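hi!! sorry for the late reply, been swamped w classes. u asked for the two structures so here they r. pasted raw, havent cleaned anything up. first the sequence of the first protein and right below it the tokens
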Amino acid sequence: MGCCGQKRAALRMRRHTTASPVPEAATPPPPAPDLGPDPSLDVVEYRGDHAILVRGAGGRLYTFSPGRRARGVPAPDAEQLLRNPLFRLDERRFDGTRQESV
């Protein structure tokens, strides 16, 4: 018959060798489908050198920076922003047509 120390050591060995189930890493959700640009938004491009925060005509705040120059904004906000010479319509995404709301 072994002494108490040997029993404790055997118990510890059993705990360390018993593999506990390791949960698998959660898989990330699938990416949202690319629905393309929203046709109801005008893409405005910022041409400045510093990050700025501007308020559109509707009161919504927009951030622009050299790292994020283009944003899609509703037409009334675009008209407000385009009054500033640091903004222009992004010609790469603007095809010259816009559907007028009735």
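now the second protein. again sequence first, tokens right under
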Amino acid sequence: MDQTDPTQGLIFDIKRFAVHDGPGIRTTVFCKGCPLRCAWCHNPEAISPKPQLILYSERCIACGACLEKCPSGAHKMEPSGKRVYHRDQCTLCGACVRVCYAGALVIQGREVTVEDVMAEVRQDAAFYETSGGGVTLSGGEPLVQVDFAIRLLQQCKREGFHTAMDTCGYADWNTIETILPYVDLFLYDLKHMDSQKHREWTGGANDRILDNLQRLSRSGVPIEIRMPIIPMINDTRELIESAAEFLSSLENITAVRLLPYHRLAGSKYERLGMDNTMPQVTPPTQDRMDEIAASIRAYGLEVV
């Protein structure tokens, strides 16, 4: 990818007919790269700002085609019959992917232009119009590729599409300010109110995130708060009430969407050759989610 070309970006998915990423029926564009390393991340393929090879071991039929085609010897078969993939030797040339008949090898992350994305977006224009939907930029973190994000959002606005951005808010305010004129709705993450614990669990302190949220709330753009609920990490009564008190002091907060923790993404880490950092905790029950929702509503906030 040409990092100097603002019309080019790196994405890992485009999800059509999305209904949880803003109002109406939407097309969600997932950008690659994120400044945080949340332990509970359910999209680990979004963290790296570079393409990655995913190995679905359960699909492998041991045909040996990848071993023959790999120019760097990254794919090998041990005498024991065990198939081994050496990521440190891989150049991501894609030769193995092209000959993998079983679909066991997939490169996650593809370079696209603004027009590439818009060609897919336009296919659902009628659904946006009838449902009040539009286009959402997610990730990863879209602000990592801010120039590409701006160009894409600008084109969406030219064509009359509602725009939303899902962000962790971990960026310079100047970066957020540059993209502000092209976003109709922010989906803003609020992960932990304790700065030290936030750093421990995400790799970054929350001071910048909270400050940016305060500034953003004064801009007049609607904001939906996204709160992951991770048992034993950020779900204590004190932390929930602290978050609710903080949010109730802000303007233009349309709703707080609670996202219960799940462990369904665990296998993704293995396929990417990454350490599985998912917390070994039990997902919250519906009763517990209802309790948290009630605590937040007590501060006059709408909860989804």
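hope this helps!! also noticed smth abt the second:
The mean pLDDT is 96.
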